[in-house]
Structure formats: structure tokens, C-alpha cells
Amino acid sequence: MDLLGKHYKAFTERQEAIKKQYSPEQAAKQHSKGKLTAWERIDLLFDSGTFEEIDAFVTPAGQPVEFGKVEKSFGDGVIVGHGKVNGRLVFAYAQDFTIMGGSLGIVHAKKIAKIQEMALKMGSPIIGLIDSGGARIQEGVASLSGYATIFQNIIHSSGIIPQISVIMGPAAGGAVYSPALTDFVFMTNHTSYMFVTGPNVVKEVLNEEVTFDQLGGAEVHARSSGVAHMIYDDEENTILALKKFLSYLPSNNVENPPVVADDGTIPDINPKLRDIIPDDPYKAYDVKDVITQIVDRNSFLEISELFAPSLVTGFARLKGKTIGVVANQPKVLAGVLDINSSTKGARFIRFCDAFNIPLLTLEDVPGFLPGVDQEHSGIIRHGAKMLFAYSEATVPKITVILRKAYGGAFIVMNSKNLGGDFSFAWPTAEIAVMGPDGAVAILYRRELANSKNPDELKKELVKKYRDKVANPFIADESGYIDEVIDPAVTRKKIASALSALNNKWVKVPSRKHGNMPL
Prior knowledge:
Layout: H1 3-21, H2 24-32, H3 38-45, E1 52-54, E2 78-85, E3 88-95, H4 106-122, E4 126-130, H5 141-157, E5 163-167, E6 170-172, H6 177-181, E7 184-188, E8 193-195, H7 199-206, H8 212-216, H9 218-225, E9 230-232, H10 235-246, H11 287-294, E10 301-303, E11 311-318, E12 321-328, H12 339-354, E13 359-365, H13 372-376, H14 379-392, E14 397-406, H15 407-412, E15 422-425, E16 430-432, H16 436-443, H17 445-450, H18 454-468, H19 472-478, E17 483-484, H20 490-500
Parallel strand pairs: 3-4, 4-5, 5-7, 6-8, 7-9, 12-13, 13-14, 14-15, 14-16, 15-17
Antiparallel strand pairs: 1-2, 2-3, 10-11, 11-12
Helix pairs in contact: 4-5, 12-14, 16-18
């Protein structure tokens, strides 16, 4: 055998050895849990034949036998590499639960760190497909050091490239802070979970019985904690949704988002918008009906749908261009802002600003949620987050006031004097320091107390307040909004405003960073 033949034989033997590592039995075990294998996830995410693996043959760091053997394997339980998603370069890592439970040792961590640094250097998104038992106990502090490096890299890349975590199994202990630091978190129902301390610790410390799903399942994090932004019933749909989600985003902070063709099915002048707001100002409606009649057909992708539903956030397209939508939802708590919705809105606004995505605000807000619980839990501080986020954002910012716009909440929802570029109002808008009922109760307290028919008097005074104070024409005539518009022309007005703002440029002060109220 010549020298080349000898080396080629060694090469092919290694190729065969790594194939044997992924046995049908291991795949079947994953499938029995409702999970895909790491390679199946990679194949589903990337365009066919485009994924290139890196560091496939690295082996785990050895450890003394007395601390437990580390299984001999290629790749150390994580697949890393790059490929094309919808034709665009994306980097990814996929933890492999079939190899040492996907646990993170120092070599495993170095592979992830390498791919993070490459993604930043190339200006491309990075996806983490997470399915791991956490830090590898046998490697002790080395594995903790590896996590710290990964966290540091996420923070360095924040606001420069999109970073998305997809939880497809366990993420426990310190491992949860990797996804928490990224921009968006996807989870799969019943097969993924996240928690700092598991059910066994909860039982031992607090004597409470709780299941994995109850403590940190997808539904909990999507509905209660807000940690998860998107959840789906199975891994296939989760990854397909991720691919659609990526199509709205630029690859980095110096690019504009991708543009697609507008199919023209949503007209620029749309009379249907005139019929959505009820005649009764106390009656609810679904703001998503407004959104879908303004943006391109089937383009609205809601983010954090189950968390803080009194505020709707999501991506959409208008004339084929990506926009971020922030809208009060009158059918949930009348569209009030509370602690959770303020935090949800601020986070979304800051992401859009970091990645050059214009913001459309649809406003129908009666104020901030009152109550002892909200005040004692810091509604002042949390509400200020949204105020800070809107004011700090330099992307194009357009507001349409649909109905209520009262008090401090009017300011917070991207008012003109907070830096909003264009502010429109429908004729149904009510712009005032407070709602008519509250204002009349304060301004005419004595008259109402002395009236023989206070209910009738109040009704009359509320109508007068609406006509003389809380109507959009006064704000229009004073220059606090730009124009009262026919609802039917809303899409046309927004498109025109976005076109005018296409070259918007704002000089920001030289500083290390602002001190956002966290």
C-alpha cells in the first residue's frame, strides 16, 4: 500500500467510526420521547446540502477515574457548523443528548464559543439548539468556566447579530442563562423545560411536589414568566416557525431586513378599517383585526402571544418590508399597560431598534393598571422601561391612535414629544389626561354631589368632555399629532411615512451607555 493509500484508509476508518457513534437505538430513544436527534434538527433547519460541520472529531477532556469516567466520543456531545437558511448564512450548534446527555464539558464549550466568534466575525445569526443535562459534573469547574465564556460571547454579540435559542430538551441550572441572554427563545411543548433549580431541589428545600412541566415547561415560560417567546407542539413545527421567523430579520445590525414582494391583496385604501372600532367607547374589539387589515396579507408573526396579552407585539411586512408592531389590545384588560406588558414592549422595541426594524405603534390605552400589587411590585420602574426604550430608539417610529390615549400611557406609547416621527389619529381617538368618567368625577365633584339626578348629569358632562376635550381635533390643531386621518387610508399613510423616513439619521450622544431602569 502506498503512502497516500495508507492515509486514506485512516481517513475512511475515522469516517466510519463517527457514523457508528449515532446508532439507531439512540435515535429510537430520542424519538420515543417525542424528540428528534441533533442531526435531524440540523437537517430540518438548514437548506438541503448546505450545512458544514466544524470540529466533528474533537474528543472530551480526560478526567481521573475516581471522579467518574467521561465517555469516549467524537464531537463531545455537540454539533457545530454553518450553512444556509432560506439562502442566507447562519451559524448553529446542536447539543446531542444521546452523547453523555448533551452535558457541557470544556471541549463542548470551546466548540460553541468558536462558532459564536465565527458568527460575530461574519455578521451572521447564530442558533442554539439546546438539549442538555447541564454542566458535566466530572469536569468540575472547567465546565463552569466554559459556560462563562459562552455567556460572555453572547453579551459581546448582543445587538450586533441575532441570537436565538431553541429549547428542545432540558436546560437547567446555570445553563438557562445562555438562552435568557439571547434575543428570542423558542420552546417545544412537553419535551422542553428550563429552570434554575429542578423539582428534586424544590421538594427538598420547600417540601413542594412539582413536575418538570409545572415548574419550567414551555407553557409556563410562554404564559407566566415570559422567558419563552414562541412555543409549538412538536419539534418539526418549532423549527419550521424558526425558519419563517428568521426571514424577517437582517443578518446583523448594519444591514436592513430582507425585502419580499408584496402580493397586493391588501389595498392601500381599505374601507374595512372604518368598521372595526365599536360605536360604544366602552366596548372591546380585537386589535389584531386592525393589524391584519394594515400589513401585507398573512405577514403578521406575533411574538410572546401568551405573555402579557394586553399588549400585542410582532413582526409584519408592509409593502414587502419588515416592521415591528406594538399595539394595545382592548379585549384584554381594556389594553392597559402593566408590569409585564411594559417589560414585554420594552424588550421588543429595543430589539427592533438594534436591527433597523421600523416601529409601528397602534394605540388604544386607558392608562396603567392601578392597584396595590402593581405599585408595590414596581409599575413605576417597569413602565419607565418602555418609556426609555421608545425614546432611545432611532429607527423610524410611527404611531396611530385608534381610540383611547390617556395620561402617562399616551406619552409612553411613542408620543410625538417622546421622539415619535409621525403621529396619526383616527376620528374615534380620545386624547386626554384621563378618561371622561374620571375627569368629570374630579372636575364636577361638587355639582354631582348636589345634583338631584347625578347619573343624568354625569352622562351629560361626559359627553361634553368627549366633545370639547378628549377628541383628536384639538390635539391636531395644537400640533401634538400630525393629522387626523380616515381609517381607510391608514396603510397608505403609514407606507408614505415609512418612505419619507427611509434615510432617517439621528446623531446620538457620545456615552458608554444609558442607565435604563431595570
